[in-house]
Amino acid sequence: MYELLLLYLLCAVGPLNAFREEFRFASYYGDHMVLQKAPEQSVLWGYGSDGAEVIVSLEGEQQNRKHSVLVQSGIWRVALEPMEARGPYNVTAVQQGTANAQVTLMDILFGDVWLCGGQSNMAYTLSQVFNASEELAMAPQFPNVRIFMAALERSNTELLDLPRAEVPWSIPSAELLGSPEFTHFSAVCWLFGRYLYKTLGYPVGLVESCWGGTPVEAWSSHRVLQKCGLENQDLRHPRFTPYKTMPGLMVAWSNSVLWNAMIHPLLNMTIKGAIWYQGEANTEYHQDKYTCAFPAMIDDWRISFHKGSGGQTAPDFPFGFVQLSTFHKGSVSDGFPNLRWHQTAGYGYAPNPRMKRTFMAVALDLPDEESPWGSIHPRNKQDVAYRLTLGARAVAYGEKGVSFQGPFPVKLLLKGDSINIIYTESVSVTRSKTIFEICCTKAKNNCSSNEGWVPAPIIHWGLSYIQVSVVQCQNIVSGVRYAWKDWPCDIKACPVYSVDRVLPAPPFIVNHWP
Ligand SMILES: *[C@@H]1O[C@H](CO)[C@@H](O)[C@H](O)[C@H]1NC(C)=O
Ligand SMILES: *[C@@H]1O[C@H](CO)[C@@H](O)[C@H](O)[C@H]1NC(C)=O
Ligand SMILES: *[C@@H]1O[C@H](CO)[C@@H](O)[C@H](O)[C@H]1NC(C)=O
Ligand SMILES: *[C@@H]1O[C@H](CO)[C@@H](O)[C@H](O)[C@H]1NC(C)=O
């Protein structure tokens, strides 16, 4: 089966033929890379001559036995012993019995490898953020945070190796992190890695694989699409129209093409976890399916990386994501609020029973009307990345006492003319007449549509509750929601935050109530 697949790929993708004889590592290994540290074992693989013996050895601080393996179907592969986080090492692979068949990767570090995926807000580079020049100037202070970026490629079949790297494994510099716009290097990915490095104190490897304007379908395998009823792509959908004249973008939207070319080739690499910033492209495209597709894609990536690495990458590796920020001020469209909700599989928070070991950075309080790249691309990526880092510390690293979720209510109590919204933690509140809304209907209703919602002003609050007035509803109150707007508040001025005012409350909706 495997041979057949390989054969098929070798035939289907012309250039791979040339690799068969050449002894080398797979395309995404390189000098300066970070390999996953213990307790996982890092996987190394490459190409060679069938039947030849390949010996892989490490030169550096920690002793490591030599690994010997035979080339099968043109491919060799070893899992190193678990390595402590340190470096540098030189990793040498030698193919026995062939002249000059030796390759050495230099300046290799062991640390945690994080994959960064999504669309343009992940592709958004450090040169585009607020305080960009200071951020860029700081890059050389973090030589142990290494970067790699996959080039934009798509394929109709699952590729074994990455066709190209946009940025091969590199030590960070202002040049590599700063240009050109939307190319390299991802601000959210870099800042996440940098903040994480500050708390971990050991190397971090960042692998960026993302593409602006892409829907979740492009990053999903056929298994995900099948599960969520997304196999039949609707190419006449209005969302496609603007791209009609741009064939490149049009193809990028096709089902599975980026999973095939930009994720599948990475599966054999051992990783610690992934972060993701995507969803804008699905606010008007299969929006209602996102609640199925996103968690299903996470499940599928997890099991695929686990299998691809021969069991080294955790089958439930931590997955962090950014909840959508804002797009149009004053918009009454429910595309953004609905998609934010779907991003949490309809729970409103993460992790949740459907999305275990996930964490979410809420970003709806960071709008940016003046962004030169359009209001859909807010320039403040520092807070986004910082909030992700808090989630990673708590969920991925099990650090105790790290608060990473904004306040989320546990109970709503309707009493007379008001509702008490109860939180388990202390909340920081500012008065608002409109941020909470109730669904006010003549009959007990299903309030999922945009009909019947009226503002419920905050009238009172305490340490861990907020009281809103429902006096204006003469009928039945059958729903409550918070921050249910594309652009619900001004910069860092949402009405509900954690008590330290770092974490905004995520939006919620209750529409079958009481
Ligand atoms: C790796 O190889 C280079 C070139 O031979 C050498 O300068 C360097 O010291 C080696 N590094 C380690 C950790 O052995
Ligand atoms: C990489 O992982 C894929 C997916 O699990 C698998 O089909 C393939 O055989 C692996 N490749 C190598 C070289 O081990
Ligand atoms: C930009 O720098 C200023 C001055 O140091 C700081 O107050 C502000 O918070 C920074 N902005 C972001 C988004 O980090
Ligand atoms: C509520 O409304 C949604 C969409 O309008 C519909 O899909 C769902 O079936 C309704 N639920 C009930 C219980 O009526």
Q: Would you kindly provide a written description of the structure presented here, covering whatever features stand out?
A:
The chain is α+β, with helices and mostly antiparallel strands and 514 residues long. The protein folds into 3 domains: 107 residues, Immunoglobulin-like (Sandwich); 287 residues, 3-Layer(aba) Sandwich (Rossmann fold); 102 residues, no CATH class. Helices cover 21% and strands 25% of the residues. The protein is built from 12 helices and 24 strands. Strands 2, 4, 5, 7, 8, 9, 10, 11, 12, 13 and 14 form an 11-stranded mixed β-sheet that branches. Strands 15-16-21-20 form a 4-stranded antiparallel β-sheet, with no helix packed on it. The protein has a 4-stranded antiparallel β-sheet with strand order 19-18-22-24, with no helix packed on it. It starts with a helix and ends with a strand. The structure holds 2-acetamido-2-deoxy-beta-D-glucopyranose (4 copies). The site of one 2-acetamido-2-deoxy-beta-D-glucopyranose has 9 residues, from strand 6 and helix 10.
What is the second-level CATH architecture of the largest domain? 3-Layer(aba) Sandwich
Count of domains: 3
What fold name stands as the CATH topology of the largest domain? Rossmann fold
Q: Into which percentage range does the β-strand content fall?
A: 25-35%
Beta strands, count:
24
Distance between the termini: 55 Å
Return the CATH class of the largest domain: Alpha Beta
- Class from helix and strand fractions: alpha+beta
Small ligands present: 2-acetamido-2-deoxy-beta-D-glucopyranose
The count of helical stretches stands at 12
Averaged pLDDT, please? 91
**Which stretches are low in confidence, meaning pLDDT under 50 for 5 or more residues running?**
1-20, 240-251
- Main beta-sheet strand count, sense and barrel state: 11 strands, mixed
Helical content stands at: 10-25%
So, the CATH homologous superfamily of the largest domain? SGNH hydrolase
Overall form: elongated
> For the CA atoms, what is the radius of gyration?
24 Å
